[in-house]
Design brief:
The protein is of the alpha/beta class and about 200 residues long. It has 8 helices and 7 strands. The strands form 2 sheets. Strands 2, 3, 4, 6 and 7 form a 5-stranded parallel sheet that branches. Strands 1-5 form a two-stranded parallel ribbon. It is globular and about 45 Å long. This is Polysaccharide deacetylase family protein.
């Protein structure tokens, strides 16, 4: 099975990714953070949330960030029928296209729950499946800004894909940690790019 956790590249570039939005409170704060450092990020959005906040989704697109498919309702994909899997992705694909005028080209399975059967569907739809290499961050549990920073810093390198959340619950710790990381990494000479941009740098 092929979940991309990191991209093999010698270029100093990392991809920040955010799951479960768009969220009208936290997503715009992230956009401002990336504006400040001239960086770009990828937002793996749920169809359900796009229906609720289409203007937030459009704002992400207008401000030159990438939107990826994170299913419609956030199921465990290995626990639903393949027809349902496909529908979860198709409906979200259509919503993203409708709101932004651009088709999503990357996806991330909820809970990173994935198997070969589900991969047959993502392959059919042409999606690379994106994981991350800072999973230990567990930012959704609100473990504290320092924990999020510490775990993420330990994993940062050329081609890192960093996973955070801008949806569900209080995401203020994530926002704070990302504010610090975005500036820190930019100061260290990293470029903050979208997942698609990072995949194009792959040297493997």
């Amino acid at each position: 099975m092929n979940i991309i956790q990191q991209v093999s590249t010698t270029q100093k570039a990392v991809a920040f990714t955010f799951d479960d939005g768009p969220n009208p409170e936290y997503t715009p704060q992230l956009l401002d953070i990336f504006d400040e450092v001239s960086g770009r990020a990828t937002f793996f959005m749920m169809g359900k949330q796009i229906e609720l906040y289409p203007e937030t989704a459009l704002d992400v697109h207008v401000r030159k960030h990438e939107i990826g498919n994170h299913t419609f309702s956030h199921p465990f994909m290995t626990q639903i029928s393949l027809e349902e899997c496909e529908r979860e992705l198709l409906v979200t694909d259509e919503l993203i296209t409708e709101v932004t005028g651009t088709k999503p080209v990357v996806m991330r399975p909820p809970y990173l729950d994935f198997n070969e059967e589900v991969q047959a569907i993502t392959d059919k739809m042409g999606y690379p499946v994106i994981g991350s290499n800072n999973g230990g961050t567990r930012d959704w549990e609100m473990p504290g800004v320092d924990h999020i920073l510490e775990v993420t810093r330990a994993q940062v390198g050329c081609g890192s894909i960093l996973l955070f959340h801008d949806g569900f619950g209080d995401r203020s710790q994530t926002i704070e940690a990302v504010r610090i990381l975005a500036k820190e990494l930019t100061d260290q000479g990293y470029r903050l790019v979208t997942v698609s941009e990072l995949l194009q740098m792959s040297e493997s």
